[in-house]
């Protein structure tokens, strides 16, 4: 991936633990999540079920619960947790010092990317 594909989102401490920050884009918003263990993940901010804003969901471990119908989505893969089926596109993130960098190219493997 080229360097111009990455954008600075902010510092880790600017996102509350078990919270999210939204990166607005014309192609669709991206939610950047922080777990209680300070792990950072990024997903398209749209539940695969009814399009609910995942950034407004509750983060538990490495999952987020959609605020509309409580679907659980894996933060590391974007996949809905069984018995639900579907996928929210996931995006690569990297940490440089305490700065979160986000790739604007989604990971492969999700048909909703």
Automatic annotation (TrEMBL):
<keyword id="KW-0560">Oxidoreductase</keyword>
<keyword id="KW-0411">Iron-sulfur</keyword>
<keyword id="KW-0534">Nitrate assimilation</keyword>
<feature type="domain" description="Rieske">
    <location>
        <begin position="7"/>
        <end position="102"/>
    </location>
</feature>
<dbReference type="GO" id="GO:0042128">
    <property type="term" value="P:nitrate assimilation"/>
</dbReference>
<dbReference type="Pfam" id="PF00355">
    <property type="entry name" value="Rieske"/>
</dbReference>
<dbReference type="InterPro" id="IPR036922">
    <property type="entry name" value="Rieske_2Fe-2S_sf"/>
</dbReference>
<dbReference type="GO" id="GO:0051537">
    <property type="term" value="F:2 iron, 2 sulfur cluster binding"/>
</dbReference>
<protein>
    <submittedName>
        <fullName>Nitrite reductase (NADH) small subunit</fullName>
    </submittedName>
</protein>
<keyword id="KW-0479">Metal-binding</keyword>
<keyword id="KW-0408">Iron</keyword>
<dbReference type="GO" id="GO:0046872">
    <property type="term" value="F:metal ion binding"/>
</dbReference>
<dbReference type="InterPro" id="IPR012748">
    <property type="entry name" value="Rieske-like_NirD"/>
</dbReference>
<keyword id="KW-0001">2Fe-2S</keyword>
<dbReference type="InterPro" id="IPR017941">
    <property type="entry name" value="Rieske_2Fe-2S"/>
</dbReference>
<dbReference type="GO" id="GO:0008942">
    <property type="term" value="F:nitrite reductase [NAD(P)H] activity"/>
</dbReference>
């Amino acid at each position: 991936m080229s360097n111009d594909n990455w954008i600075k989102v902010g510092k880790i401490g600017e996102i509350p633990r078990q919270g999210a920050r939204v990166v607005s884009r014309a192609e669709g918003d991206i939610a950047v999540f922080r777990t209680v263990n300070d792990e950072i993940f990024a997903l398209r901010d749209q539940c695969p079920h009814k399009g609910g804003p995942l950034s407004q969901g509750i983060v538990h471990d490495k999952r987020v619960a959609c605020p509309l119908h409580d679907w659980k989505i894996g933060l590391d893969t974007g996949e809905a947790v069984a018995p639900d089926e579907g996928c929210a596109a996931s995006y690569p993130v990297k940490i440089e010092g305490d700065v979160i960098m986000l790739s604007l190219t989604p990971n492969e493997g999700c048909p909703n990317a």
